Task: structure prediction
Amino acid sequence: MGLIRFTRRELSLAIRQAGNSAIIVMFFILSAILFPLGIGPDPNLLSRIAPGVVWITALLAAMLSFERLFAPDYEDGSLEQLVLNPVSLETIVLSKAIAHWLTTGLPLLLAAPVIALMYELPHNGYGILMAAMILGTPTISLVGTLGSALTLGARRGGMLLSLVVLPLVIPVMIFGTTCVNAGIGGYTIKAHLMLLGALLLGSLIVAPVAAAAAIRQALD
Result:
C-alpha cells in the first residue's frame, strides 16, 4: 500500500508539471529529425539506423528529467521527512522510478512508432521495437533514479549524473537495437528479450537499495 500511495503522490506532482513530459517528447522527436539532416535522406540507410536512432534519442530525452527526481525534495527539506516515514526508503525510491516511467518512459514508448515511421522501419520491426522498449525503458528509469540519488547535492550534478548513468544504460541500448535488427533480419529475438528482461530484473532489485543508501549518505 505504501508503494501505491507514494506513486500516486509522485504522479500528482508530475501532473502539475505536465509540460515537462511534453518537452521531453518534443526533444525526442526533434532529435530524431536531425539525423537525416546530417547523414542524408537515403531511405535504405535511414531504415537500417532507425532502431539505433530511437534508442539513442529516447535515452537522451530521458536524461533531461533525471536531475530533478530528488533535487526538489532535497532542497526544500521534504526528503528528510520521507526518510523518517514508516514506509521504507527503498519503497519510496521505487515509487519515484515508477512515476518517472509513467510520465517519461511511457510517453517516449508511445512516440517511438512515430520516429520509426519517419525512418521507414520495416513493418515487421514495429512490434519488436515496442516489446524491446517495454522492457528497456523501465530499466532506464530505474538506473536514472539511482544516478540521481548518487549525485544528490553534488556540485555540477547534471554533468556527473550523465557520467554515472550513460555507462550503465549502454547495454540496454545495445540489446534493444540488436533485438530489433535481429527481428527484421528474420533471426530469433528470444535471447535479446531475455537479456533485456534480466537487466530490468537486476535493476529492479539493485537500484532501489543502492539509491536509498546513497540518499541516506547524502543526508548524513
Observations:
- The first helix runs from residue 2 to 16.
- Residues 2-219 form one domain.
